[in-house]
Specification:
This protein is α+β, with helices and mostly antiparallel strands. It contains 17 helices and 24 strands. It is an enzyme of class 2 (transferase).
Length: 541
């Protein structure tokens, strides 16, 4: 999966699977503002957190409209579609799938509701008790048909939560949230809404970041502070672990649904978050530079040049150069216009060494002893290709330094790594990995050094992908994983309800120009729109 923000280090090799991001969520309550456009630009700032699908829901106080499709934010939306999303409340989402496959049915925001109102919900994270939640849905609907997103093939944990929030017609959404949220296990940052109120909630461990911002005429919630700043909002604070926030015409109110047990994801500091994000008081860029300095202290080497793999390795490379005194320079040139490519090279082109996304800067590295800084090694194929490039360009020596410890364990809290069997650090020591990728030397930062660079308390960080120590206990029966819900039968039926979908055959784009969302409403108040997605990418700016 290529990344739209240009961080290409894990997409050098076609089909190479690097660590895939958690999702991005955004919500805004701002009467008088163009909330759909604010959400669009907020999602644009969060595009690095997911590139599979994007969606926006808006409410004008009377009805909710959702527009979503597969593809990047810029591919899904245009002026026409955004113009049709009217109202003063909006919720947006950009997705990488961690529960449920990458399909239109699983795109977010998800919809649910009953006669008393509607809920549109966006989720960043991953729940680990999805089977238990499915059983709760079955129990809540005993003797009744399960409708809505689940009935139309949604296999995500998000759809389960949406269904549970709207199960009891006698409860307001706020009351339902205070009842449902304590029953969820895993990592979650929710931004959701009904016709009148914007909500945000964060799991008690605070695994994923979620920040609250202030507009002149409203409030904004987003996965990263950078998205708040993009839309001109001032950063107020983080949404606290175990906190539910509600924002409406009466202002902002806060509820505590669980006691905080902070275990923030350390990989946010290593790779996931934007460099300009601030998480729990620490600027991510500063953490990455300090990781590079610590790498230089832990794994010094005599060399002539320090280079970073664009873009995620560059801050750590800067720190390594500062601490070691070895000059920092540019060793790779990236193609800034390559996003997701749907065209895979043939075997012949692969044998010719096609380099679509990254090329060595030969005049800078010829004859030099080079230190290459990257954020992580997953399978090793990407690093192997990088080293081969550098040697072909004339590098005298290639020393690899990694700003995280060896990745040895899968993440169940919102990052999709390769399987444990595919992780090169599973069963191989550092020297064996060095030999496999063809480096002259290899050094990983220590877990202690990485944590120190994050400037967080060790007891308040999750390091499970490096240590195998999972702070949120995993199900004993092993029923967990990306596709677990797709293997379970569900007694469902289609029918009229408050959340509706548009079939693929209804999505023929207007090639003459932009268009409003294709819409169908099977019940009062709710419509779903579908864009042209990746297939129509060339029709968009």
């Amino acid at each position: 999966m290529a990344r739209s923000d240009g961080r290409l280090s894990h997409d050098l090799m076609p089909g190479e699977k690097g660590p895939q991001d958690a999702c991005g969520v955004f919500g805004v309550w701002a009467p008088g503002e163009e909330v759909a456009k604010l959400t669009y630009f907020g999602l644009y700032a969060l595009q690095h957190r997911g590139q599979e699908s994007a969606g926006i829901a808006t409410s004008d106080g009377q009805s909710i409209l959702v527009y979503k499709d597969m593809g990047l934010v810029s591919q899904v939306f245009d002026e026409s579609s955004l113009g049709s999303l009217r109202g003063h409340i909006a919720v947006g989402h950009t997705r990488y799938s961690t529960t449920g496959g990458s399909t239109w049915e699983n795109a977010q925001p998800t919809l649910g509701g009953h006669a008393g109102g509607t809920v549109a919900l966006a989720h960043n994270g991953n729940l680990i008790n999805t089977v238990e939640l499915r059983e709760m849905v079955d129990a809540e609907h005993a003797g009744r048909t399960v409708r809505g997103e689940l009935a139309r093939g949604n296999t995500s944990d998000t759809a389960l939560v949406t269904t549970l929030l709207s199960a009891d017609e006698d409860k307001t959404l706020e009351q339902a949230a205070m009842d449902v949220l304590p029953k969820l296990r895993g990592a979650f940052c929710f931004v959701f809404m009904d016709e009148h109120t914007l909500y945000a909630a964060r799991d008690p461990y605070g695994v994923r970041p979620l920040a609250l911002g202030r507009l002149e005429n409203g409030w904004v919630v987003a996965s990263e502070t950078a998205a708040l700043q993009t839309v001109g909002a001032s950063v107020v604070r983080e949404v606290e672990p175990g906190e539910l926030i509600a924002i409406d015409e009466d202002g902002l109110r806060s509820h505590r649904f669980a006691e905080p047990q902070r275990k923030g994801c350390v990989f946010e500091y290593v790779y996931l978050a934007r460099p300009d994000a601030v998480i729990n008081g620490r600027v991510v860029h500063e953490a990455r530079v300090e990781m590079g300095r610590q790498l230089a202290r832990e794994h010094p080497v005599e060399a002539d040049l320090v280079i970073g793999v664009p873009e995620s390795g560059v801050p750590a490379a800067t720190g390594y150069a500062q601490e070691s005194g070895i000059p920092f320079g540019q060793g790779f040139v990236k193609n800034a216009y390559v996003g997701r490519t749907f065209i895979q090279p043939s075997q012949t082109l692969r044998q010719l060494g096609i380099r679509l996304k990254l090329n060595p800067l030969e005049h800078s590295i010829r004859g030099k002893r080079v230190v290459v800084i990257d954020d992580s090694i997953v399978r090793g194929n990407t690093q192997r290709a990088q080293i081969r490039m550098l040697r072909e360009a004339g590098a005298a020596e290639v020393h690899v330094r990694i700003s995280s410890p060896p990745v040895q364990w899968p993440c169940f809290y919102g990052i999709d790594f390769a399987t444990r069997a595919e992780l090169i650090a599973t069963g191989l020591g550092v020297e064996e990995i060095r030999s496999s990728i063809g480096a002259d030397s290899l050094g990983y930062i220590s877990t202690e050094g990485m944590i120190a660079a994050s400037d967080q308390q060790p007891s308040q960080l999750c390091t499970a992908c490096f240590t195998g120590e999972y702070p949120i206990e995993l199900p004993e029966d092993g029923r967990i994983g990306k596709h677990v819900l797709e293997t379970l039968p569900l007694e469902i039926a289609s029918g009229h309800d408050r959340s509706v979908a548009v079939a693929a055959e209804d999505r023929a784009p207007d090639r003459a120009g932009g268009r409003a969302p294709s819409q169908r409403s099977d019940a009062e108040g709710v419509s779903v729109g579908v864009g042209t997605g990746g297939a129509g990418a060339l029709d968009h700016p």
